[in-house]
């Protein structure tokens, strides 16, 4: 029978299957961080259980860590307790940890690929919904809850039911200034935040194949905003080249064997999908979100929607609620939206290529005098690389602050946050109410668009600044 | 885990769609290392004003809804992050059953791990049940019979049989899976031959 890439990975990891389809799936790689793991370790301790395979587990502190000077440690007591607890748990259970002072420290979904911990054809889980990022490598990667983290630690397996197959084909070429962030925002706008519920999405088509490894990660990362469990892309030579020589990648004989297997990870030509949609890359424009859900997207040329033109009562109310929260008027032009802050970073857009893209726009320019802007590299290694390329200087000269790696203002659990009614152009993935700070207003954009907004002082078209 | 069997309560109704996990429990409360104590911060931003005072208009601040065990809400409930703090907060507040027409996947499975029953009903039924919330009348749920009773009416709902069993018996997932330890071991041994790079020994 013809199978999809998802089917193949699923079948390859089945430890057990009950008659009703409830399955026990083997987990090859488990990432953990400080926020969703303490209760899982506590559970293990309470029932006298061990971590079954400490070597298949990798831990990092990212959500709570300060992005300013770290020599003084963490001043917020609760954050400190969480980070210290992670450290103590890793020590007790023998799990490798990238601590706050390790230069490999960074956002969990950035360090996995960076270290070669993320590999094609594996099942990867983490107590974090953006685990979907790793699907860019052709792995089945998804977020789990803390009880499931405990389950994986104890058994190296997970209880799952098979999801549906959903394929999104993107063909054609992207216009100048349009990036993979715009592609995924466009997709979410089209399918809605519940469009992928119960599904695993495979991204395919010649546009997807033409993307770099990092650009693919941006797309898979936001799969969860489209409601799907996981998003994946068939691995190819670009992926293999990326992984070759990474610290945790297979070596020698094992590399050859792995490569052999990885090359087989493709959806059969006549495999069946429960759902399928097509997008033309040539028609995608730079996108922004105007509201408080990632599906609230418009292009930079468009206007903010008017609830009066919406017939459906639920939708009308939801637009009204969003506009009120966002402090926007119906029908105003996207480019008339003035901003106070800019955040470049997160597991969506905190990698080296993202920083290069923003720096290209910012070179020899100054940001608007009323804008406060920060860049938070996704990991210590991204930071180091950027500094070698002189990107930090470009950012700082233009008026940005150059920070230490972490999640930072993506979810504002550390000190980086918006004040009430402050408005931010952000390269992160969620624009929920209060996501970047209570009462804060978030507009999701690509790194280039964030740079353009910083220069103009309002949301603006990145194509204006394209050299 | 607390067993779930029968439940009777005046439901609370939140007619908002896409209630995300940041709304259920904002991130400042994720810094805990415990599962308990989150109930007072459930729906924090909607429930308290800037000075930390309860907002009277918000339904969970009003009697009898502050004692509701059943929450009825708009579609796509629990979207957003994977934080299990969301069901922990609901549970700590006293809510053990959520009724919506759809849920985000991770939230949905997190509920079952904590003895919460997330029921999926059609929009029409939800409208009907929300009237009971408005009139402050009780409805009851019988998981074993898969039935909801309201006024003189009753109807059957659907639920995955295995998930139902786990809720009814309060089964611990890990213990269940560890019963299959030999299968896991077999699988691992196979893996060492077919994909030696996974264990990287
Ligand atoms: S960067 Fe944001 S989305 Fe990514 S893991 Fe951190 S908090 Fe989650």
Helix content of chain A: 25-40%
CATH architecture of the largest domain in chain B: Alpha-Beta Barrel
* Rg over alpha carbons of chain A: 21 Å
The helix/strand series of chain B, from N terminus to C terminus, equals EEHHEHEHEHEEEHHH
Instruction: Output the number of helix runs of chain A.
Output: 16
Number of individual domains of chain B? 2
Relevant CATH superfamily of the largest domain in chain B: Aconitase, domain 4
The CATH topology of the largest domain in chain B turns out to be Aconitase, domain 4
Q: What small-molecule ligands were found?
A: iron/sulfur cluster
Please give a structural write-up:
- The complex is a heterodimer of chains A (467) and B (201).
- By secondary structure, chain A is an alpha/beta fold.
- Chain A has 16 helices and 19 strands.
- In chain A, the strands form 5 sheets. Chain A has a 5-stranded parallel sheet. In chain A, strands 17-16-15-18-19 form a 5-stranded parallel sheet.
- In chain A, β1 and β2 form a beta hairpin.
- In chain A, α13 packs across α15 and α13 packs parallel to α16.
- Chain A is globular.
- The mean pLDDT of chain A is 96.
- Chain B is an alpha/beta fold.
- Chain B folds into 2 domains: 165 residues, Aconitase, domain 4 (Alpha-Beta Barrel); 28 residues, no CATH class.
- In chain B, 33% of the residues lie in helices and 15% in strands.
- Chain B contains 8 helices and 8 strands; from the N terminus they run ββααβαβαβαβββααα.
- In chain B, strands 1-6-7-8 form a 4-stranded antiparallel sheet, with no helix packed on it. Chain B has a 4-stranded parallel sheet with strand order 2-3-4-5.
- The model of chain B has no long low-confidence stretch (mean pLDDT 94).
- At the A-B interface, α2, α3, α5, α10 and α11 of A face α4, α7 and α8 of B.
- The site of iron/sulfur cluster has 14 residues of chain A, from α4 and α12.
């Amino acid at each position: 029978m013809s199978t999809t890439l998802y089917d193949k990975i699923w079948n390859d990891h089945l430890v057990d299957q009950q008659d009703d389809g409830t399955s026990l799936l083997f987990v090859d790689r488990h990432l953990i961080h400080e926020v969703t793991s303490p209760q899982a370790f506590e559970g293990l301790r309470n029932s006298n259980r061990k971590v079954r395979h400490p070597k298949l587990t990798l831990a990092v502190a990212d959500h709570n860590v300060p992005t300013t000077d770290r020599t003084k440690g963490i001043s917020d007591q609760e954050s400190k307790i969480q980070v210290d607890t992670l450290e103590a748990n890793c020590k007790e259970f023998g799990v490798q940890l990238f601590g706050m002072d390790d230069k490999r420290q960074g956002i969990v979904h950035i360090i996995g690929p960076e270290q070669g911990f993320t590999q094609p054809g594996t099942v990867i889980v983490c107590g974090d919904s953006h685990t979907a990022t790793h699907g860019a490598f052709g792995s089945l990667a998804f977020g789990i809850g803390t009880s499931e983290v405990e389950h994986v630690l104890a058994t190296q397996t997970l209880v799952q039911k098979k999801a549906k197959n959903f394929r999104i084909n993107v063909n054609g070429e992207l216009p100048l200034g349009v990036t993979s962030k715009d592609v995924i925002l466009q997709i979410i706008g089209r399918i809605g935040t519940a469009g992928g519920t119960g599904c695993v999405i495979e991204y395919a088509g010649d546009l997807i194949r033409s993307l770099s490894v990092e650009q693919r990660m941006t797309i898979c990362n936001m799969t969860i905003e489209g409601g799907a469990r996981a998003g994946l892309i068939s691995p190819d030579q670009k992926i293999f080249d990326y992984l070759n020589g990474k610290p945790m990648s297979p070596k020698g004989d094992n590399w050859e064997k792995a490569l052999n297997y990885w090359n087989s990870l493709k959806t059969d030509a006549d495999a069946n999908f429960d759902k399928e949609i097509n997008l033309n890359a040539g028609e995608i424009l730079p996108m922004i979100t105007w509201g408080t859900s990632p599906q609230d997207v418009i292009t930079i040329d468009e206007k903010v929607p008017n609830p009066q033109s919406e017939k459906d009562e639920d939708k009308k109310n939801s637009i009204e609620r969003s506009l009120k929260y966002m402090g926007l008027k119906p029908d105003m032009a996207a480019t008339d939206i003035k901003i106070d802050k800019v955040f470049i970073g997160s597991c969506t857009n905190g990698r080296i290529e993202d920083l290069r893209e923003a720096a290209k726009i910012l070179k020899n320019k100054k940001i608007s005098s009323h804008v406060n802007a920060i860049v938070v590299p996704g990991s210590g290694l991204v930071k180091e690389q950027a500094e070698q390329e002189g990107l930090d200087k470009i950012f700082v000269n233009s008026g940005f602050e150059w920070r230490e790696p972490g999640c930072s203002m993506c979810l504002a659990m550390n000190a980086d946050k918006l004040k009430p009614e402050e408005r931010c152009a952000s390269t992160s993935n969620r624009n929920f109410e209060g996501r970047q700070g209570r009462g804060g207003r978030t507009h999701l954009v690509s790194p280039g668009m964030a740079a353009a907004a910083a220069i103009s002082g309002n949301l603006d078209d990145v194509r204006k600044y394209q050299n | 885990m607390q067993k779930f069997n029968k439940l009777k309560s005046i439901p609370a109704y939140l007619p908002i769609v896409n209630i995300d996990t940041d709304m259920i429990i904002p991130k400042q409360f994720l810094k805990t290392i415990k599962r308990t104590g989150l109930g007072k911060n459930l729906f924090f931003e909607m429930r308290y004003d800037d000075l930390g005072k309860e907002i009277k208009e918000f339904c969970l601040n009003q009697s009898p809804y502050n004692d509701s065990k059943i929450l009825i809400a708009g579609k796509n409930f629990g979207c957003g992050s994977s934080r299990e703090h969301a069901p922990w907060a609901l549970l700590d507040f006293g809510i053990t059953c959520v009724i919506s027409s759809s849920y985000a996947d991770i939230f949905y499975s997190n509920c079952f791990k904590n003895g919460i029953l997330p029921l999926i009903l059609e929009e029409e039924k939800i409208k009907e049940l929300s009237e009971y919330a408005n009139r402050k009348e009780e409805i009851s749920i019988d998981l074993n019979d898969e039935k909801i009773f309201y006024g003189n009416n009753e109807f059957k709902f659907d639920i995955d049989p295995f998930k139902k069993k786990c809720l009814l018996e309060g089964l611990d997932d890990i213990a269940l899976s560890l019963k299959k330890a030999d299968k896991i071991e077999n699988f691992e041994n196979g893996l060492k031959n077919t994909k030696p790079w996974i264990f990287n020994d």
